[in-house]
Amino acid sequence: MSEKIPALIDKFGREINYARISITDRCDFRCVYCMSEDMKFEPRNELLSLEEIAQIGTSLSELGVRKLRITGGEPLGRKNVMWLFEHLGGLENIRDLTITTNGSQLPKMARALAESGVTRVNISLDSLQPERFKRITRTGDLDKVLDGIHAAADAGFKRVKLNTVAMKGRNDDELLDIVDFARNTGIDVVFIEEMPLGNTSNHDRQETYCSSDEVRSIIEQKYELIATTENTGGPSRYFRMSDSDSRIGFISPHSHNFCESCNRVRITAKGLMLLCLGQEHSVDLREVLREQGHASDAMIEQLKEVITKGIDLKPLGHDFDLSEQPIIMRHMNVTGG
Ligand code: SAM
Ligand code: SF4
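That is the input. Now the predicted structure with iron/sulfur cluster docked in place:
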């Protein structure tokens, strides 16, 4: 790796070396905490093209970003998406190219993703009970997702991880089953506190809120959790169990605020660079990419300048409050989870 790569430093001294890019707002699922039942999606020409996403990824990597996470919506539902992974997988400054997926396309895509340079995969799984899984995702087929998880576990990624949103009265009685499933499959699991992003019709977030401390005490009924200082460059705090290689992580935006060590920015499917998940500070990268109608050295220089100046807008942190109506009306599929 070249020593000349600059670092992106915000005005609070945090180094920004991680970008999450949402490559589509569309999805084959309608998870209750993420979308409303009757979601309206953006017109396709409003979304970044794969070439525009590739340009943003390249410029970020030349500015000091070392880790890219591709997310959505459902990223593996996007047409010709393997072209993008092959491009990003070839960027020399990117140490970690990761993806967050609902797993429905993994049975047929896991191996090709591993071969393209994707290093780690996060797969959402909120229940191991078919009926309940269907209720939470509204459209998902559990068997297909389980096949996808097994395909990922066998594909040769550095790490495969489950993402579970813990919800009281919805799945808190099977969190230990999910831990056992992760242990038996040789993968990690991260439990997430739900965030108030976008209106989700008939799902009451205050009623289902389950803190990471509550999840931890459920798991500790069966397993001793040993705190580690391991870090995968994201907001999770990790624990280990003495008799397994699987790790248990917690993402706790409410109970253990992680803003002071935030190292990331997000790019929405429409090309806004968001400086914080829970705030509106942003700069428009699509505008720069489309201004001249074609790629040029001047456009790439301008893109890098807008990104660099945009980092100065990064706020100190978020301010989530589940007792209020969501102040951030963006749904998670637009922002990229
Ligand atoms: N479709 C892919 C998936 O489900 O993994 C990627 C996009 S999804 C928006 C990314 C992650 O965000 C998922 O793990 C999901 O559970 C999480 N998520 C969505 N809405 C959330 C919310 N309101 N609070 C916390 N996590 C949320
Ligand atoms: Fe789709 Fe992922 Fe949102 Fe579920 S969490 S609706 S799978 S984007």
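Residues 119 and 205 are 33 Å apart (CA to CA).
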